[in-house]
Amino acid sequence: MPIRLLGACCLVMAIANGCGAQPTADTFVENAHIRVGVNLKWGGAITHVSTPGGPNIINSHDLGRQIQQSYYSGPPNYQREGKQKSPAWASFPWNPIQTGDAFHNGSKVLEHRIVNGELYVKTIPMLWPMNNDPGECVMETWIRLLPDGPKFQYRARLTNHRSDTTQYRAHNQEVPAVYTNGPWHRLMTYLGDQPFAGGDLTEVRNDHREPWPWVNYLPTEGWAALVNDDGSGIGVIVPHPMEFHGGFAGRRGVGGEKDGPTGYMSPITTEILDHNIVYEYACTFVVGNLDSIRAEAKRLASRQLPAWNFENARQGWHYANGKDDGWPLKGRGLKVHADVAGQPVRVIGPYTFWRAEDASSVRIRLTADRAGEVRVYWR
Hints:
The protein is mostly beta strands. It folds into two domains: 4-300, Distorted Sandwich (Beta-galactosidase, Chain A, domain 5); 305-379, no CATH class. It is built from two helices and 24 strands. A hairpin with a 5-residue loop joins strand 10 and strand 11 (151-160).
C-alpha cells in the first residue's frame, strides 16, 4: 500500500542540515484509508485524524486535549519554586503532558522522523498546571498506519529523570487521553459479562449530573468509541480489558476543533512512576462505524488468561501502605515493605476480566520473612 508523506520536505532538510530548519507546525502521514497529523509546536501530539477528505475528529480547544500522553505522580499539590501555577488546577500533582501547559506554552519536540509510514516524535513535555515548567522526563511516540483499513497503531514511552527521587504512591495514568470535536459526542462500548457474543452496546453518560463530566467504566471487550449521531467516529482498543474514563463536556453535537464542546475517553491504568522509570504502552485506533471498531477489537483480543511475572516490571500492580525497592526491578520481583510497621500491606492488581469457567485455579508465589496471614480478594 503506497504511503504519502506530508511535511517530508522539512524532514529532509532537518537530516541534511543537522535540524537547522524549523519544522512546520503540522506534519501528516496518510494512506488510502486514513490521515493522521501531529503538531510539532505542540509536542508532536495528534491534532488530526480523518479519512482522506473527511472532517477532522480531534479537538484542540486548548493544549490539554488532542490525542496525547499524560501521566501523574507525586507530590500532591505540586509546586516548583519560582513557577506560577494555575488556580484552576491548584490541587494537581506532578502532571507532564505531551502538548503543553494550561498557559498555552507548547512542549518542545527534540526529534521527529517519518520512515515507512511510521511517524516518530521525541518530546520534552510541559507540566500541565504550571506556567512554562518542563517536566524532568522525555516522551516518545510512534504512530504506524495499517494498510488494511482506517486504523493506526499507537505506541508511547515515558522516560523519567526526576531530581525528586521519592517513590510516590500509584496514580491513574491516561494511556492515552483522547479528545474529539462536538459532533462525536456519543461514548459507546460494551459493559456486559459476555464479551464478543454480540450483546447490546451501552452509551456511557454522566447520568448523575455531577459537575465533573467524566465517569469511570469497565469495557469488558477492551475498547470504547466516540461516535456521531450516525454511529461513526473513532475507537481505541487496548491489548487487554481495563478501566476507562470518559464522557462529554459542553453542548452535544456541535463545534469544531478550536471550539469548547468535546468528547473524552481514555484507557486508565494505575502505576507507580519512579523517578527513573521507563514506562511503555500501546493501543490501536480505528476510524469507522461501531461494527468495524468492535470487529477489530475482537480480532485483536487476547485469548490468554492473565499471568503476571514481576522480573522486570510491576505490570500495573501497586500498593496501599507499602513501597518496593524501586525501578528497575532487576529480577527481584516485588520486594514490598510496609510504610507503617505492624499494619497490613495491600498489593493491588490492575483491572482485568476473564471467564470464571476458564480458570479453575489461581496460583500465587511469594516469600515472606515472617509468619502471617495472606488474604486474596477479587470481584
